[in-house]
Amino acid sequence: MNNKNLDNEILKLIEAQPEISEIEIASRLSVPEELVKARISNFNDTRQKILIMGDGNSAFSIKATLETENYNVVKVPGGLSSFEAVKAEKPDLVLLDTGFADLEGFKICKQLRTSSRYWWIPVMVLSEKGEVKNRVEAFESGVDDYVTMPFNPVELRARVGMILKRTHF
């Protein structure tokens, strides 16, 4: 069996049984387990990636909400700069979970907008501050959308979906 056919067979088994182990796949396809591991490691995740940055406390619920739409959601580990995170993760959308500290989120957005490499990446802000002046400041810094918390999961998924459709037609 060539690699392309093997990859297709592996994917069929994984789609039918997402919890299937590499050992089971190898057994069912009568190939060595090491070959299955190697082929799976070559698969690329083609889902759209959302990078969550910021110091807000809602990262877990945001991640869970967006994963229900099959997005690849990654939370930036502490201590990693915005540019390091964007470079490493290559996201389709940056979601700034700013909590009450909007100024830091606005700085990140301005840095992305002035970068020759990352200016095109859409940025959404989630903030507990809902006043008009905060929203205006956010849009002036270059954000694509601003959502106040607590957020409605259905609305968040819809807003993220529309931003990604507009930027990845």
Automatic annotation (TrEMBL):
Matches recorded under Pfam families = Response_reg
Q: Which residues form the Response regulatory domain?
A: 48-164
Q: Which residues form a coiled coil?
A: none
| InterPro entries, per database record | CheY-like_superfamily (IPR011006), Sig_transdc_resp-reg_receiver (IPR001789), WalR-like (IPR039420)
Q: Write out the GO cellular component annotations.
A: cytosol; protein-DNA complex
Q: Which residues carry this modification: 4-aspartylphosphate?
A: 97
Q: Name one GO biological process term.
A: regulation of DNA-templated transcription
Keywords annotated in UniProt: DNA-binding, Phosphoprotein, Transcription, Transcription regulation, Two-component regulatory system
Q: Name one GO molecular function term.
A: phosphorelay response regulator activity
Q: What is this protein called?
A: Response regulator receiver
- Its source organism is Methanosarcina barkeri 3
Taxonomy of the source species: Archaea, Methanobacteriati, Methanobacteriota, Stenosarchaea group, Methanomicrobia
